[in-house]
Amino acid sequence: MITKVVMEALSPTMEEGRIAQWLKHEGDAVKSGDVLAEVETDKAIMELPARGEGVLRKILVGDGVTTAVGNLVAVIAGADEDITGVMGEGQKGQTPAAPAAPAAPAASAAPAAPAAPVPPVVPAVPAVPIVPVAGAEEAGRVKASPLARRMAGEKGIDLHAVTGSGPGGRIIKRDVTATPVAPVAPVGGGGEGWKDVPLSQLRKTIARRLTQSIGPIPHFYLRAEIDMERALEAREALNALGDAKISVNDVVLKALAMALLQHRECNAWWQDDHIRYFNEVHIAMAVAVDEGLITPVIRHAHRKSLREIATESRALADRARARKLTPEEYTGGTFSLSNLGMFGIDEFTAVINPPEAGILAVGAVTPRPVVVDGQVTVRRRMRVTMSCDHRVIDGATGARMLQTFTRMLEHSLALVW
Amino acid sequence: MSKTFDVIILGGGPAGYVCAIRCAQLGLQAAVVEREKLGGVCVNVGCIPSKALLHSAMVANLIRHDAKALGITTGDVTLDYGVAMKRSRQVADQNSKGVEFLMKKNKVTVIAGSGTLQAGRKVKVGDDVLTATKAVVVATGSRVKGLPQAGLEINKTTVISTDEALFLEQAPKRLAIVGAGAVGMEFADVFNAFGSAVTLIEVLPRILPLEDAECSAALARAYKKRGITVLAGARVKGAKVGTDAVTLEVEANGKTESIEVDKVLMAAGRGLNVDGVGLEAAGVKLTDHGFVQVDASLRTTAEGVYAIGDIAGPPMLAHKGSREGVVAAEAIAGHKPHPIRYDNVPSVTYCHPEVASIGLTEDACKEKQLDYQVGKFPLTANGRARATNETDGFVKIIREKKYGEILGAHIVASHASEMIHELVVARENEYTVEEVDLAIHAHPTLSEAVAEAALDSMGRVLHI
Fold it and tell me: A233 and A271: one domain?
């Protein structure tokens, strides 16, 4: 039986892929699921799996060659099967990413093997949907205790958006209790952990006018300088416990998540005809890699302990540098964080990562003279700049969020940890 | 004998030996160091022999008080505590042998002696020094203790502990029991059945002070009816300890009375076996209450040292210790065990009728200002209880009003210890009263009273 191997859409945004390296060679026997080749996508190096069984008869696109999603790259077939029929289908530019499965190149494609069934066309894997990784979810069924279900029903919380902490990832009472109830009035659609709010005329006008003025995403910037003494003391104390090494960035990320939780009007995506406000905070964290940067996402950051954030951010950064991130790991952020403090940058502005409505640029923590109680004293301070998409966030809205963020770090550490 | 093991466990009680079995299941080579008999207090001088004696007591009461109505006429009934005691010893010994068998079956090395912890996961037993490559688990348990501040130091003749009570050849004529928690209640039940004049003294305002107040009241009534003198809110001010008798000065309700008894059984709390274990030298810290400080995985403050069972904190119950043994073993093996819900450990007193509970008492719900509804079903309305002439008791379920959460459940019944578990399962899995009712209960059973109490908490009780 002939199985055509096509370049698959291995990430939601992938349009073409470069064969980094074939791991199987012509003449190798392959089983369904075997990794045939490593493919470099726009974001990461992914594995191209076999979708059929037989012998890898022909490789059509060699190592290092780039081809469009949907194009034939190899053929798997029986050892003696005639594959000339399928070979004829060359590289016809942009073939659809997901060809309809039954529309196979009929029987004429394999005339020499009349007994063989119609050769299947391998459909490309559908673009990975952006869903929060929830261990409790199994084939659409949410594992949750009856009490958790009742509480969620009563409070209007969608269990799909809740991460379970019970046995086997089961959602239990404390997970529901920890999930804040969405404050935004349910105007439009919604459900899966967010609320879609249609644009008001005012918002439409603001969006149109500002876009004309400044470009597709009308940025504006809010700056603040934050006293980091208390946050650093807390971090040092936590690190002294020796359980996990917590970086300044971890502390900032946690505070940002907690602040966004209180200001969900900033935890949103611009969706052209509506704004999507998220209940859960997923922080995309900019990580520099050799060829540029990528933003792995700390999901449900507001519900994770600093220790969890420290462990996860380190693991994600390592995977990012090794280009091992899966699409689920670098998509679905609701707000971004970029920190150039480690390069000694005092302050900078970061560019919004659409459709997110904001990004926080964090500079180095630096000792600076400040006036405290009428006395000039030296305190460790940190400058941050929040870039806001003005179509979603207005000046005062963003300022309130930044104010909460500042307070989280300067005063109410207990709230954060 | 090899001197290096993956895991060395100090103490072969229900925490330690279960930990050893779980370690073996997970492919770890375990050794148990035990200075007395395997099975610890529970198997040898605690849970098991006392249950044997309580069974004798129950049968004695049944024959003397109920048999005639059940159509059985007996001649003179003779009670012999010594015989009951010897049977209880056989039961205990069988259980200890059972633990020995389990150790052999699981290839756990059992080392006789007292283990002392040393730095670097080493344990000294006699002249031998054993090394654990992965962890040392301290499960040294607890022991009986007296009340020296009231002049009641245990002398093993007139002032005794359960260690002695379990070996008496005959029941004392007059017995005072200090402490009306589970232990005091059970021994009051036993010795009352074997003919002792029992005075039960509890310093707190009611017997079974940790249970729901309605359970305490039900047992106080049952005990008074049976001729046990119950003195709650009573303090032992002093004691004259003689060679054949003890005179207690007991202050209750503002007046002091003098009580003369042949023996005093001390059942007010237990002492922790933390001395001589080498905890301090190994860097293991204790809490303000004297327990070993542990985290959710039962790790102490010393690297590679775990603590489980009574020394690791309350409740000091065998089943809590066993579960800690499992969790510690899994943590040592690198698994991520589900943390223990210490608010969901059932508590049982095996007196007659039995008292069993889980979760919050009604007083605790009031204190926490929870919005709750009590559902209660008396056993007088339960067919099975009437059939077996065991209508003393009730099932009480406290339901959180908004979501139906089972905040607590309290059972007084002849078989409360067996009935409580459906509510333990329910609470552990966050079933609400509705799920309890949805499960069909066989008829006729005492457990139907559980379903009826669940219904009653929703205002839908069927049979009253």
Answer: yes
Residues belonging to chain A with any Cβ–Cβ distance to chain B shorter than 8 Å: 145-148, 150-151, 154, 166-167, 172-173
A142 and A229, same domain (yes or no): no
Task: Indicate which of B335, B343, B401, B403 best probes the interface with A, i.e. most A CBs within 10 Å of its own CB.
Answer: B403
Task: Judge if B260 and B299 occupy the same domain.
Answer: no
End residue of a domain, out of B225, B248, B268: B268
Eight-class DSSP state of B68: G
A vs B, Cβ pairs < 8 A, gives 27
- Kindly list the catalytic residues of B: 443
Residues A410, A413, A416, A417, CA torsion sign: positive
ipTM: 0.78
Q: Which domain holds residue B123?
A: 4-143+271-342
> CA–CA separation, A337 vs A362, rounded Å?
8
Check: CB of residue A75 under 8 Å from CB of residue A110.
no
Q: What is the CATH number of the domain that holds A25?
A: 2.40.50.100
Distance, in Å, from the CA atom of A295 to the CA atom of A352, rounded to the nearest integer, reads 12
* Domain contains B233: yes
Q: What is the pTM of this model?
A: 0.61
B251 and A CB contact within 8 Å: no
pLDDT tens string, chain B, 464 residues long: the values are 679 999 999 999 999 999 999 999 999 999 999 999 999 999 999 999 999 999 999 999 999 999 999 999 999 999 999 999 999 999 999 999 999 999 999 999 999 999 999 988 999 999 999 999 999 999 999 999 999 988 999 999 999 999 999 999 999 999 999 999 999 999 999 999 999 999 999 999 999 999 999 999 999 999 999 999 999 999 999 999 999 999 999 999 889 999 999 999 999 989 999 999 999 999 999 999 999 999 999 999 999 999 999 999 999 999 999 999 999 999 999 998 989 999 999 999 999 999 999 999 999 999 999 999 999 999 999 999 999 999 999 999 999 999 999 999 999 999 999 999 999 999 999 999 999 999 999 999 999 999 999 999 999 999 99
Nearest CA in chain B to A154: B403
CATH number of A203's domain: 3.30.559.10
| Strands of A253-374, DSSP E | 268-270, 274-278, 283-285, 287-289, 292-294, 297-298, 335-339, 358-372
